[in-house]
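Sample intake sheet
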Amino acid sequence: MKGNIHSIETFGTVDGPGIRYVLFLQGCLLRCQFCHNADTWEMHTGNEVEVKEIIEDLTEYLPFINASGGGITVSGGEPLLQLPFLLELFKECKKIGIHTAIDTSGGCYSTSPLFQEQLIELFSVTDLILLDLKHINRKKHIKLTGMGNDHILSFATFLSEKKIPVWIRHVLVPTINDSPEDLRMLGDFISTLSNIEKVEILPYHKLGVYKWEALGLEYPLKGIEPPSEASVKFAYNMLTSSEIKF
């Protein structure tokens, strides 16, 4: 089984607990205006790598991973676009006791029987989902990402029903998704979920602008600066002010 891999980070510290071996897969359906990995969008490209190659490389870092309570995080792009590869990879990780996490927007979630069957099997070897919720307002979500958010919110509810541990991640972009009303609505939605272990506010940054330029793309958020520390704190308080139990 081979996956289309964009890149690997062997010492990740911000994508789940402990030190993480972070695998970035190629391909994504969303076109987020703030994306810092625009070079992962294109489907069926990247390097084709076998599961066994990943496991062999990963085992070299196990002393650091295990000592820190870390594991492997598969990100992207959108990992769930490569479900068969992801499933086989996590099965092999579990054979050697590695904590597994998926960083996903849920942007390709589907209620098709085959997708659901594969997803449920994947959950049996998945310890944590890092769920990126971009915007609660459907029209604003379309403008921000190119797609609606109905199926994404359904995915979040599905994870709650299946009791899969989730960390909510929200990229805070000034003037785009930081209004008190939008944050309150998102917080109200999060409070309906029973499986949330943590909420993270990720401040918008411009570190990926050079990738847009290298790809010949016009960066859509020119002039927007990262949020202040006070804004980040305000957003966190808004998203966690409801009766959320961590």
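Comment: The two ends are 37 Å apart (CA to CA). Residues 2-240 form a domain with the TIM Barrel fold (CATH 3.20.20.70).
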